Amino acid sequence: MVGKSIYNLRLPSIEYLCYFFIQLFYCAIVLLIFGLLLSLIVSDIKALMPVGMTIMFILFMVIGVFVQYSSLPKIIRTISSYIPVKYLANDFYYIWIGQAKWNMPFFKCNTIWLIFLCLICYIIYRRKNNVTKIFN
């Protein structure tokens, strides 16, 4: 109600809404695996939350949450093009308004992150299990 009255927002068609949510969930999977990686690296729960909040704040600065994305320096925009959340915060708007169905740069970036993070999580998990087996 507020979005419609103040910002003239409306829901997209069912087709574009599905495209939007498919890509949103795909991004969420990578973010969850990144959280898993953080929990594998930082074992102290009291330290994990500040580390996660610091990373989140830095990501917000790089992807243009605090300022308009186009006003960021070119080097920051170049760096942010390698971060999947940038597409979620800036480019998924075109899916929402019905101008695009798929964001291929997002898919490429997110898939690379997914493979990389899964590989790193697997390696760290295996090493932690081997270390505990030696001492038990």
Describe the structure.
With 136 residues, this protein is mainly α. The chain has one domain. 76% of the residues lie in helices and 0% in strands. It has seven helices and no strands. The longest helix has 32 residues. The radius of gyration is 18 Å and the shape is globular. The model has no long low-confidence stretch (mean pLDDT 88).
List the helices and strands and how they pair.
Elements: H1 2-7, H2 14-41, H3 45-63, H4 74-80, H5 84-91, H6 93-96, H7 104-135
What's this, in brief?
The protein is an all-alpha fold. The protein has helices at residues 2-7, 14-41, 45-63, 74-80, 84-91, 93-96, 104-135.
How far apart the termini lie comes to 59 Å
Number of helices: 7
Number of strands: 0
- As a percent range, the share of helical residues equals over 70%
Structural class by SSE content? mainly alpha
Q: Spell out the helices and strands N to C.
A: HHHHHHH
Shape: globular
Radius of gyration: 18 Å
Percentage beta strand? under 5%
Average per-residue pLDDT, rounded, comes to 88
Subcellular location: Membrane
GO molecular function: ABC-type transporter activity
Protein name: ABC transporter permease
GO cellular component, one term: membrane
